[in-house]
Design brief:
By secondary structure, the chain is mostly helical. It has one domain. Strands 1-2 form a two-stranded antiparallel sheet. Helix 5 packs antiparallel against helix 8, helix 10 runs parallel beside helix 13 and helix 11 crosses helix 13. The radius of gyration is 20 Å and the shape is globular. The protein starts with a helix and ends in a 14-residue tail after the last helix.
Length: 309
Amino acid sequence: MGFFIETLLGGLMTGTLYALIALGFVLIYKASGVFNFAQGALVLFAALAMARFSEWFPAWLGFESKVLANVLAFGVAMLVMVAVAWLVEHLVLGKLVNQEGITLLMATLGIAYFLDGFGQTLFGSDIYKIDVGLPKDPIFLFENTFQGGVLVSKEDLYAAAIAAALVAALSLFFQKTATGRALRAVADDHQAAQSIGIPLARIWVIVWSVAGFVALVAGMIWGSKLGVQFSLSLVALKALPVVILGGLTSVPGAIIGGLIIGVGEKLSEVYIGPMLGGGIEIWFAYVLALVFLLVRPQGLFGEKIIDRV
């Protein structure tokens, strides 16, 4: 039982990180109707910026404080992501208003490949380290309940807490603030939102900036765990099955979907993987997403679209 709980907790903590990345997809889709394939590239670009600035600032400014370097690096990386958001809206999305969905999809693919290449040209293509002070030592929980206790990684625990806090803050932002309500209005009907004075350009810059912030936090956490490398954008794409499972327009769906995928892939790898030769954790999420596309294509919490003729 203790091993099962250990695996379950590991899946939940991984699931919160998936949910955090999936929120970037959901935010942009809700506000613009664009399925943003560039979210993985945003995570990689943000993580590269954070890693390199935290290395460069002590040398440039002549101090040795790692905490100060990380704070400055995070702030400047956030400004970079806002600049990226403004450029995406001004140079790409602003030119493609009312275009076909496939056009917007191809535009985000182009943005993804550009950010992947430009990020490595600008910041380098080696494996970089982000050290934000998350503890690496494991801890044992429930030692009095289960023999030997439950082994939990402190780093995963802190990362999950950060991700959960950010997910909760974004949910409140959408529900309780005027900007959040404007974002939801734009998501429901672009033309109706424009008719009551909501500027689409400003809304899209805001939503891409928020998605950039989410990408920066996700990249910082994953970069701390795995190192900042090209494969980070592929890890971020694990959020695709999450949004398919939860629903493209649902913030709660992204959260629930992330937890289901995180727990499901951990449990399946541990309990089913040995029977199939292992590797189930790599494809479990995508197979589950395929099943949902066949059975419930709108996802668990997505809106069902009914066309009447």
